[in-house]
Write the structure tokens for this entry.
Amino acid sequence: MNEFKKAILVILLAISQFACASFVKQKLAFHEPELNASAEVAYLYVKDIYKVDDKDVPKKTTYLAIKPGIHELRFLASGHFYSFNTNAYLKAKAGRIYTVSMQEVVDVTAKHQEKLDLLLDSR
Amino acid sequence: MRFIFFLFLFYLFLGLSGCAYFVRGPSFDEAPKPKLTTENIAVYFSRGGMLAFRSPLHINGKHALDLGNGFTWFELRPGIYNFQINGAGGVEALKFDKKFEIPGKVYYLNCNVSGLGTGCDELEEKTALKYFKSKKYMQPSFKTIEPKIELE
């Protein structure tokens, strides 16, 4: 194999790596909330949640913007031997990000605090 | 062979007698009643399904009692409370939040924990009274607890 062919092979390899990395990044980015710069709403990751306040959560939704206040979430929980439908109430505060994990409503704002602060500061 | 058979029967007897749980408390009519005011609510609670074992009941994470084939009640303020019922061996079987909104109201909850169906129903008073009258009262470790979430 001459030097030219080696160079072509290296370039192709680099392009495929770059394409693969971009694809993975896109996939990961999909799960990040696209937060709007607003202190008037809270955000809720809707993984496993199929209803919020008796309204169906559209398929392929990652998160929802919800008004501050009490909301009922219906979701599928995993027991030790089986899964079952259950619910949890969330008292949402503006500017916070929530999710449901292990049947508990969890405030995950801290994980995204930097991003949220930047967005709120840029208002 | 016969020895093994009798040993099996003996263990089966031990197992069943250990699991079976018969409530010896007062009947529904003789049991103490919750003090209902215009500001609080009463929640009657029983468990259906497989009754051969006790089910630990937790409210807002606090252990209230091990409920067998009986009923109990709580005097609560309106609000949202979390209920957790464990199955055999202490395995978490059912966990849910319940909102109680109307002061002065009596709520009747019956939860099933079994392989055939797990869930919790709020019973109408007429149905509930018939059902609860067949059960014995069991005293919980507390009669009231603060709501998990206060209503606005």
Confidence is low (pLDDT under 50) at residues 25-33 of chain A.
